[in-house]
């Protein structure tokens, strides 16, 4: 379980998160919605200790992240795959080598054959052919790079996957393919996922729970149906901006 408890975070005098609490139970996918610049990336970076809270706590499977030792933090990071917004593949490494990095933090402790087999298996799970392992990131389309980044994130049988804007920057067809893949992986490997996104359409398809970050706080948390049907005007404006903006021009 990932438990974010009363987290506050400022950069200088800019307050980004104010007393944010969010509990993510095992299984399923939570979409974390919010307009650009509201602190979605800042919030999920707390989960793997890339950012420390000014106040509050983040607990992953019983480990308090801000006070974790280096060793505990490494152990948690091996259980939490992170798909960065820009894919963040290493250009100088082949696809296979990039995926191998996700297997464990100290490199692959298995035999070469086991490593190879796992790389092929990860490629299969993201619908890429085995031959792709030999290619370099620059030879791939944006959608393929995203799939490789996802494969790297779960290659070590991570229990949690954090996706930061996985469909942003992709054309609608590839955005659909990537979100379908996230949905399919959920079923096939049973990970617990958090998908940070402002892409409502794909977020709704993939997620079973939804949280909305608004002005530094969690404005709403619940099921997709509850989110769709709530009367909260802030949620309504986020879901259908056209209703609110109609008549402005
Ligand atoms: N390391 C940092 N130092 C200073 N400001 C930051 C840092 N990281 C994020 N911010 C600021 O925090 C705010 C929220 O950023 P972010 O979490 O990236 O938003 P988003 O919801 O789009 O992911 C932004 O105003 C951003 O400029
Ligand atoms: Mg972001």
Structural class assignment: alpha/beta
The major sheet is characterized as: 6 strands, mixed
Beta fraction: 15-25%
Q: Estimate percent helicity.
A: 25-40%
The top-level CATH class is Alpha Beta
Count the E strands.
10
What does the radius of gyration come to?
18 Å
Task: Describe the fold and architecture.
This protein has 249 residues and is an alpha/beta fold. The chain has one domain (2-245): Rossmann fold, CATH 3.40.50.300. The chain is 38% helix and 25% strand. It is built from 10 helices and 10 strands. The protein has helices at 40-47, 70-79, 95-101, 112-125, 142-154, 172-189, 200-206, 224-229, 233-239, 241-245; strands at residues 2-11, 14-24, 29-33, 55-60, 63-64, 80-83, 160-164, 192-197, 209-214, 217-223. A 6-stranded mixed beta sheet has the order 6-7-8-3-9-10, sandwiched between helices. A 4-stranded antiparallel beta sheet has the order 2-1-4-5, with helices on one face. Helix 3 packs parallel to helix 5, helix 4 crosses helix 5 (142-154) and helix 6 (172-189) runs parallel beside helix 7 (200-206). The model has no long low-confidence stretch (mean pLDDT 91). Magnesium ion (MG) binds at residues 40-41, 85, 164-165. InterPro entries: AAA+_ATPase, ABC_transporter-like_ATP-bd, ABC_transporter-like_CS, P-loop_NTPase. Pfam families: ABC_tran (PF00005). It comes from Candidatus Kutchimonas denitrificans. Residues 2-240 form the ABC transporter domain. One of its GO terms (molecular function) is ATP binding.
């Amino acid at each position: 379980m990932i438990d974010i408890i009363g987290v506050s975070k400022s950069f200088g005098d800019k307050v980004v998160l104010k007393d944010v609490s969010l509990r993510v139970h095992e299984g399923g996918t939570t979409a974390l919605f919010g307009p650009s610049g509201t602190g979605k990336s800042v919030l999920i970076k707390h989960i793997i200790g890339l950012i420390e809270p000014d106040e509050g706590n983040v607990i992953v499977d019983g480990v308090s992240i801000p006070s974790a030792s280096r060793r505990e933090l490494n152990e948690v990071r091996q259980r939490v795959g992170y798909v960065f917004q820009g894919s963040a593949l290493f250009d100088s490494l082949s696809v296979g080598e990039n995926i191998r990095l996700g297997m464990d933090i100290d490199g692959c402790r298995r035999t070469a054959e086991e490593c190879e087999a796992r790389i092929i298996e990860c490629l299969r799970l993201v619908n890429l052919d085995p031959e792709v392992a030999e290619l370099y990131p620059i030879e791939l389309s944006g959608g393929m790079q995203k799939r490789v980044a996802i494969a790297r994130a779960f290659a070590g049988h991570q229990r949690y996957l954090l996706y930061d804007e996985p469909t942003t920057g992709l054309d609608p067809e590839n955005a659909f393919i990537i979100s379908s893949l996230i949905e399919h992986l959920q079923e096939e490997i049973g990970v617990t996922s958090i998908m940070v996104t402002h892409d409502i359409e794909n977020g709704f398809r993939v997620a079973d729970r939804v949280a909305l970050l608004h002005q530094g706080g969690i404005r709403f948390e619940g099921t997709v149906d509850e989110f769709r049907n709530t009367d909260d005007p802030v949620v309504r404006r986020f879901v259908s901006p056209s209703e609110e903006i109609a008549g402005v021009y």
